[in-house]
Amino acid sequence: MIQHTVNTPYMVGPVHFYTFETNHGVIMFDTGPNTLEAISYLNRHIDLKKLSFLFITHCHIDHYGLTYLIKQNSDARIFLSRYDYLKFKHYQTRFEKVTYMLEEEGFPKHILNEINYYLEGMKRLAPFPEGEIIEENRDLLNQLNLDFLRCPGHSQSDIVYLFQNYAITGDVILRDVFQTPLLDLNLDDMKTRYNNYLAYIETIDKLISLSGYTILPGHREYIDDVKQRISIYLNKMLTRGVKIGKSLVEDSIYDIIVKISNGKQLDSFTQYLKASEIFFIRDIFKNPEPLQKAINRHSLNIDLNKYVEEIYG
Known about the structure:
Helices cover 48% and strands 15% of the residues. The strands form 2 sheets. A 6-stranded mixed beta sheet has the order 1-2-3-4-5-6. Strands 7-8-9-10 form a 4-stranded mixed beta sheet. It is an alpha/beta fold and 313 residues long. It is built from 14 helices and 10 strands.
């Protein structure tokens, strides 16, 4: 497995994608962002004529941004999650519903308009990746000796690919990067808010099952201890909840963001990210029992009662 790393213009920093040469041709996992630097890297290091398959872990721009270029310049079959397909198909409905959720939490109209402008720009920069639905292609996966796990949390569509002794995990588990669980509409019912928290509880079980795999993340260094990384992530999330304090149950999310910003003017998209994080944190403190069961099940290094008592006494 070859790791390729390119810079991104986003706060997350450089991103990895991966290639592996097989008897079926070259298999590629993710693409990097749609930047001139990434295009140059792709042209210099990947022989697109040999590329047979491209698998996308999740359709965030730094992971699928060059899919359109690969589609135009190779015969590779491209695969993505059914949930990524639905995200693009129902983009307008999703945005309207998410806008309503943010309005209910005190977000002013001008910020919502700026978020829309930003997201529309991302859509233009990275067009929808025409491809096949991974969940509908089990026969091909069996031929390639490749499997996948749906591991939502960071996004609704997160996929972990299992190939030989490798687990290509995208942004599901990272070292020293806080992968915000993004606010979205539940694509299964197209009515309610997607509950990243409850989804992530199930993902914890799946990630811990990866013991014995070499984990290849989308950013930063390799993951050597899954349980430790999960514990660090959740402890960090819970610590942020305690810092918010009683505001977590008493104030709107927009008011919380204003308070924790300490007078600093945050751009609109950062405010959306902060709102997503606070929704997740609030869900934990409202309903800690599922997390407590996961902690007990896997002996995670988390003292959940300590955090909950800090908020509720």
